[in-house]
Design goal:
The chain has one domain: CBS-domain (Roll). It has 5 helices and 6 strands; from the N terminus they run E-H-E-E-H-H-E-H-E-E-H. The chain starts with 6 loop residues before the first strand and ends in a 13-residue tail after the last helix.
Length: 130
């Protein structure tokens, strides 16, 4: 889990997001929050769907993809793998409606690969938490 995920306030404009965060940091995917509560995810592909001239008037919350999957901090990695789909690459880690971090699909796949290389099967009984 990344305990310091990139976030953007839901009420920010797409222009603010692009010029104040994305271009400065190189980040490509952020969690959209309102008062610390995760609402959705936004990435470069979603932003690209907005005409450049509309960026100053378009709020991030209008473009974001609502969170379809989140996990608890003690969530099981094997269960997370069962719940992932092709469209989900970033999963917020949430407790009491507060964003604690994110798990990235690439992190999970590296973990599974490491277990495979070490010949430690990924079973529910021996699985780790996010």
């Amino acid at each position: 889990m990344d305990p310091r995920p990139a976030v953007v306030e839901a009420g920010s404009t797409v222009q603010q997001l692009v010029f104040e965060q994305l271009l400065r940091t190189g980040q490509q995917r952020l969690v959209v929050v309102r008062d610390g509560r995760p609402l959705g995810l936004i990435d470069v592909a979603l932003i690209s769907s907005v005409q450049r001239g509309r960026w100053p008037a378009t709020l991030v919350e209008q473009v974001m993809r609502p969170i379809s999957l989140s996990v608890a901090p003690d969530g099981d990695v094997a269960e997370l793998l069962d719940r992932l789909d092709a469209a989900t690459t970033t999963v917020p880690v949430v407790a009491d409606d507060r964003l604690l971090g994110v798990v990235d699909l690439n992190q999970v796949l590296r973990y599974v690969q490491l277990r495979d290389q070490l010949q430690v099967p990924l079973t529910r009984a021996g699985s780790a938490t996010v």
